[in-house]
Design goal:
Layout lengths: L1 E5 L9 H15 L4 E6 L10 E4 L20 H16 L7 E4 L4 H8 L8 E5 L5 H4 L12 E4 L2 H7 L5 E3 L16 H4 L7 E5 L8 H9 L5 E5 L5 H11 L4 E4 L6 H6 L3 E4 L8 H9 L3 E4 L2 H7 L6 E2 L4 H14 L1 H14 L2 H23 L1
Parallel strand pairs: 1-2, 1-4, 2-3, 4-5, 5-6, 6-7, 8-9, 8-11, 9-10, 11-12, 12-13
Length: about 375
């Protein structure tokens, strides 16, 4: 098959969806059975086993203060629109047998409705950023189409399996990189004499980074480190100066440095109420870092029932208590779970699940066209 992954941020940023697509594409290409191509806005990366096509865009940071109205509901959709305008001129879907994206609305529309009346390859939508395009029937969501749906958590699968040909496949991590190891705090300028609480998150409302800071601020001497960026950066810095001066920092790191940052933390906090999957869960699990997160169906599916760090994240006191407990006694339990987590969420295993589903979708699409 000729498999094309399309996402505006590919090879330019290292958010969860981009990391997932690049990892799955790499592992499928290594099998040597298919022609794999990624289409994004970054530059080609040497020694990757797939082809890459660069299409430019206007980055979302330029749209943070732009007016919001349907379908331009966020700066990420504004960015996507500029990328698609360029892609319509430079990308040829007829060169693919099957396409994948997790970007809606404009990338999905381009791959399922353009050119009008023309023959198009089979299209798979991946719920990396949510499944509402697949089931919502209002506004621009009623124009959603796909030939197959990859659901990244069981809630999405149960909600959509009767609507679209669907499969449940989690995200993952590279166990060769994300594995237990010694902390290297000096590399990041982190203190050796106080506990380090890590949040790996975009600075946006849905991630609840400010709520996490409020909970950590009540733990004496705890150092809060946030690896990420976003429009709440100024509010984060201002709140840190107010609540925990000298005990917080914000940083952005190359992807290759993230395993060492995890190893340097005593606990990872992720207080969002909802994630499509959350690569950070699998990464922290495989490295053996205790995790404190919201207790709901997705995190129970990832960590297992009874995981000690799952709490009601709406309760700030509960977050504080869980983080404090994880700092004092959570490391041995987390390390004991690391090997099983690494095996379950290995990108190699996950990519094989993807390819099996892509074969099914491609064969069904080809039979329908006949």
């Amino acid at each position: 098959m000729r498999i094309h992954f399309l996402l505006p941020g590919l090879h330019r940023v290292h958010r969860g969806a981009e990391v997932a697509f690049e990892a799955v594409a790499t592992e499928i290409a290594k099998l040597g059975l298919d022609e794999v191509k990624l289409v994004g806005s970054g530059d080609p990366i040497p020694d990757r086993p797939y082809d890459f096509q660069r299409i430019g865009l206007i980055p979302r940071e330029r749209f943070e203060r732009a007016p919001k109205f349907p379908p331009f509901r966020s700066e990420s959709i504004d960015e996507e629109a500029t990328w698609v305008l360029n892609a319509l001129r430079h990308y040829r879907s007829r060169d693919a047998d099957i396409t994948l994206t997790c970007s809606y609305p404009f990338v999905n529309w381009m791959l399922t409705r353009w050119p009008p009346g023309g023959k198009r390859p089979a299209h798979v939508f991946v719920t990396q950023n949510g499944d509402w395009p697949a089931y919502a029937e209002n506004s621009e969501y009623k124009l959603f189409r796909c030939d197959g749906l990859v659901c990244t958590n069981p809630i999405y699968f149960e909600r959509n399996e009767a609507r679209w040909p669907s499969v449940l496949i989690p995200n993952g991590m590279n166990p060769e990189r994300f594995s237990p190891g010694a902390p290297v705090r000096a590399r990041f300028g982190l203190p050796e004499d106080r506990p380090v609480v890590l949040m790996v998150s975009a600075l946006i409302d849905s991630k609840r980074v400010l709520d996490g800071m409020r909970a950590v601020a009540r733990i004496p001497d705890a150092e809060l480190v946030v690896a990420g960026d976003g429009p709440l950066r100024d509010q984060f810095d201002a709140l840190g100066k107010e609540l925990m001066p000298g005990r917080f920092r914000r940083m952005t790191l190359p992807l290759a440095e993230m395993p060492n940052l995890y190893r340097s933390a005593d606990v990872m906090l992720h207080p969002t109420f909802h994630e499509s999957f959350g690569n950070v869960y699998a990464e922290a699990l495989a490295i053996g870092v205790p995790v404190v997160a919201h207790d709901y169906a997705v995190t129970r599916w990832i960590f297992g029932d009874g995981y000690p760090g799952l709490v009601d994240a709406a309760d700030s006191d509960a977050i504080t208590a869980a983080v404090s407990k994880a700092i004092k006694e959570g490391k041995p339990d987390a390390l004991a779970r690391a090997a099983a987590g690494a095996e379950r969420f290995s990108w190699r295993n996950i990519a094989r699940q993807y390819r099996d589903f892509l074969v099914e979708v491609h064969d069904r699409h080809r039979a329908a066209r006949r």
